[in-house]
Amino acid sequence: MDYYTKIGLLHPRRSDSNYRLYDEEAVEAIEMVKRYKKMNCPLYEIKDIIDMLQSKKLSNKSLEMHVDHIAQLMQNLEKEIKDMQQLMDHMNREQRTIIMEKLSKQSANLVKALLVIFY
């Protein structure tokens, strides 16, 4: 948290006793940092995304970087799906069923998110 504050990802207020106070916006920013770090997004890009969203100003450069990063993640995901399909060819029925149940839940969430973005 200290590091995120130091690099400008978080902007906590201070209490009378000098404790950092994090509001709902900071909690949302922390959740975004966690999410983007899982996608191997560098902190400087995460900071740009958070700044862009919090300021409500969409700079073309920041937006383009964000879209490029998402496109790269989608390409990587496509490769992983192809690899998984090859692995599934060697699994028994029970193993395939377990994998498909997990993937179908995630797929439904992904489709919903994409529909919100594009429509």
Describe the protein.
The longest helix has 29 residues, at 60-88. The chain is mainly alpha-helical. The mean pLDDT is 81. Helix 2 runs antiparallel to helix 3 (43-55) and helix 3 (43-55) crosses helix 4 (60-88). The protein starts with a helix and ends with a helix. Strands 1-2 form a two-stranded antiparallel ribbon. It is built from five helices and two strands; from the N terminus they run αββαααα.
List the helices and strands and how they pair.
Elements: H1 2-6, E1 13-14, E2 20-21, H2 24-38, H3 43-55, H4 60-88, H5 93-118
Antiparallel strand pairs: 1-2
Helix pairs in contact: 2-3, 3-4
Write a concise keyword list for the protein shown above.
mainly alpha; 119 residues; two-stranded antiparallel sheet
Helical stretch count? 5
- How far apart are the termini? 36 Å
Q: What's the pLDDT, averaged over the residues?
A: 81
Order of helices and strands: HEEHHHH
> Helix/strand/pairing class, anyone?
mainly alpha
Major sheet, described briefly? 2 strands, antiparallel
Q: How much helix is in the residues?
A: over 70%
Integer-rounded radius of gyration: 19 Å
Strand coverage percent: under 5%
Strand order of the largest sheet: 1-2
- Label the overall shape: elongated
Q: Which residues sit in consecutive blocks of at least 5 with pLDDT less than 50?
A: none
How many strands in all?
2
